[in-house]
């Protein structure tokens, strides 16, 4: 891809230019993000071709039971909805929204759709993680997202522990890139 560094060189040239005062922080962020995405995609493809193919885990339909159980467990830690005050009332509303979204997804898509497979669960997990770590959302909303996230993560781990470990490694790299972007003041300016 134009502008992306080879996978083995996560922004080295852009970083060296940046630290010597010749480079652009946004360009460095863009190149680091592209290289990180390339690493993730390559690792996923390798896993699917090898372990995923052997176990069939990549195409196996996954159940949402643990996700709904995680939401119910989070709800059980709150005051009952009919007597709840803030912040529990906000948490109930956030859990209701997430639960309704999941029910809608399940009604809308057939059982063979990607939302029922490992890749769909992983995308949902990432979206919930990003939401839960976005400080513009209230604490109750973020905690509700984390409850659903834990259910998704448990489902993925049960289906394919190696894949889960692989994605945890990617998440750690992604979090580091986000911290670097914050430090550089480039924020979300990584879209090319």
Key terms for this structure?
mainly alpha; 7 helices; 69% helix
Question: Would you spell out the secondary-structure blueprint of this structure?
Answer:
Layout: H1 12-19, H2 25-55, H3 65-76, H4 88-108, H5 118-132, H6 139-159, H7 161-184
Helix pairs in contact: 2-7, 3-4, 3-6, 4-6, 5-6, 6-7
Description:
Helices cover 69% and strands 0% of the residues. Helix 3 runs antiparallel to helix 6 and helix 6 packs antiparallel against helix 7. The N terminus is likely disordered.
- The sequence of SSEs as H and E is HHHHHHH
Oligomer: single chain
First-to-last CA distance: 11 Å
**So what's the overall shape?**
flat
Quick recap of the structure?
It is built from 7 helices and no strands.
